């Protein structure tokens, strides 16, 4: 990874879904870039172990429980972050329900599963953002980065609830950017391609290969491939960038 050790110096950032996968990668990169980080996740045992490992590396991270389907949990996590860091400058909404949501066509989709995906991925993102906004206003230069998916750009089959939820994230980002611009809060989206993380282990190898061959840069996508874009959007370098979606997928689909 390139040397970004001063890029986020003094910033205070929350990363949701940080126990593993993309969220964990973001949290570590952000801390390496000089920010203090609160890592939030529903997987509390895994989270605690990962927080301790990063602390052993000398990184300024802490962890807190977060259930995006529970508003009280969301408020408690944000209150913890505010108290722990004495401020919040940025938020990455990475947590999402992804595992076990695919493999059925639209005619066979389970309505209960649909509701769970929307509750966590859409409503949870909104509530988490809503809880952070009062503190981001105080920052005077707040940054919100929502994690969507390139599946929302090309309409992946047999994954409708997830695709719909990520399409909602794209639309919510634009609306948030309009409403929060007067407070100098920038809101943007990153749309990853199929990335090699725990949540994609269920995806058949043939599908992974289809992604690789369909990309302009024909190789598998790793979590580190997204870190630079996230760091940029959280930094002062992106202070006039808002309401945008940046696909980071090696050129599998263009925005």
TrEMBL record:
This is Short-chain dehydrogenase. It comes from Acinetobacter populi. The keyword Repressor does not apply. Belongs to the short-chain dehydrogenases/reductases (SDR) family. PANTHER family: 3-OXOACYL-[ACYL-CARRIER-PROTEIN] REDUCTASE FABG (PTHR42760:SF115), SHORT-CHAIN DEHYDROGENASES/REDUCTASES FAMILY MEMBER (PTHR42760). The keyword Oxidoreductase applies. Keywords: Oxidoreductase. It comes from the Bacteria. InterPro entries: NAD(P)-bd_dom_sf, Sc_DH/Rdtase_CS, SDR_fam. GO terms for molecular function: oxidoreductase activity, acting on the CH-OH group of donors, NAD or NADP as acceptor.
């Amino acid at each position: 990874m390139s040397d970004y050790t001063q890029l986020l110096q003094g910033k205070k950032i929350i990363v949701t879904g940080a126990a593993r996968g993309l969220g964990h990668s973001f949290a570590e990169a952000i801390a390496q870039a000089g920010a203090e980080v609160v890592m939030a996740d529903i997987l509390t045992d895994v989270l605690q172990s990962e927080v301790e490992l990063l602390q052993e590396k000398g990184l300024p991270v802490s962890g807190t429980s977060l259930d995006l389907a529970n508003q009280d949990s969301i408020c408690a996590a944000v209150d913890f972050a505010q108290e722990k860091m004495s401020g919040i400058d940025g938020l990455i909404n990475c947590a999402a329900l992804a595992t076990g949501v695919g493999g059925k066509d639209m005619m066979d989709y389970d309505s209960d599963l649909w509701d769970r995906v929307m509750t966590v991925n859409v409503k949870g993102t909104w509530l988490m953002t809503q809880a952070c906004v009062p503190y981001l206003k105080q920052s005077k230069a707040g940054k919100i980065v929502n994690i969507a998916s390139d599946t929302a750009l090309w309409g992946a089959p047999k994954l409708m609830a997830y695709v719909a939820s990520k399409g909602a994230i794209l639309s919510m980002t634009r609306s948030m950017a309009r409403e929060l611009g007067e407070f100098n809060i920038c809101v943007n989206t990153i749309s990853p391609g199929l990335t090699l993380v725990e949540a994609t282990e269920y995806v058949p190898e043939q599908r992974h290969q289809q992604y690789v061959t369909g990309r302009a840069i024909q190789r598998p996508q790793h979590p580190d491939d997204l870190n630079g874009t996230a760091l940029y959007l959280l930094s002062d370098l992106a202070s006039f960038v808002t309401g945008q979606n940046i696909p980071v997928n090696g050129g599998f689909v263009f925005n």
